[in-house]
Design a protein that fits this description.
alpha/beta, Rossmann fold, seven-stranded mixed beta sheet, two-stranded antiparallel ribbon, 7 helices, 31% helix
């Protein structure tokens, strides 16, 4: 019997996707995000057409470059502000991209005045994933999110991976606390559940400003 006549084995789960996502690159630059979320991001960005994306957590800068390329296709004056605390990690080519501005003093020191003049702002929180940092960033940047746009909180998937305790409750604890008191945001199930219930690393993390 030919090996091709047998049904091929398919075996993957949250852990295999998590292990694989560390190998993802964009235009040769490390871009550590869930592949499902890259698909969701390009759809969401094309739909809402932000003129400013603020990304907390640059790492090497692959995702910032991905966002910038999508904004470039939209045309007009658009920018990505990407924030981190480790300058030496960022790929040098990011510095040459006119759509990307890098900030390496942490989200705490980002001047919100820099967002003035932009009509539609999207926030992506992808920092340390600790509860403390996540809730602090959410409270600081929430007011910048324009109605119809989003504040996306990354990596609530750490609960599924057994990393919740190490992050003191992590993003999901921060989201729950924030949503308990917010009347301006809803969890958008359209994005969270597109591939299955919370089939995203950003579990319950696509928060739409209403």
């Amino acid at each position: 019997m030919s090996v091709f006549s047998k049904r091929p084995k398919v075996k993957f789960n949250v852990k295999t996707v998590f292990d694989g996502h560390f190998k993802i690159t964009y235009r040769g630059i490390e871009a550590v995000k869930c592949p499902f979320d890259y698909v969701l991001y390009q759809m969401l960005i094309w739909e809402i057409k932000p003129d400013l994306i603020i990304e907390i957590g640059t790492n090497k800068g692959g995702s910032a470059l991905y966002f910038a390329d999508i904004l470039n296709m939209l045309g007009g004056k658009r920018e990505v502000h990407t924030i981190d605390i480790v300058k030496d990690l960022i790929d040098p080519s990011i510095a040459n991209n006119t759509l990307i501005k890098t900030f390496t003093d942490g989200y705490q020191n980002y001047n919100l005045e820099l967002a003035k003049g932009f009509e539609k702002i999207l926030i992506i929180e992808d920092g340390s994933h600790t509860y403390e940092d996540t809730i602090a960033a959410m409270k600081k940047f929430a007011s910048l999110v324009t109605p119809g746009s989003y504040m996306i909180i990354e990596d609530g998937i750490i609960d599924e991976l057994g990393l919740k305790k190490a992050h003191n409750g992590g993003p999901l604890k921060a989201i729950a606390e924030f949503m308990d008191t917010s009347t301006d945001f809803v969890i958008d199930r359209k994005w969270c559940d597109m591939f299955g219930t919370n089939a995203t690393f950003n579990v319950n993390g696509y928060l739409k400003r209403i």
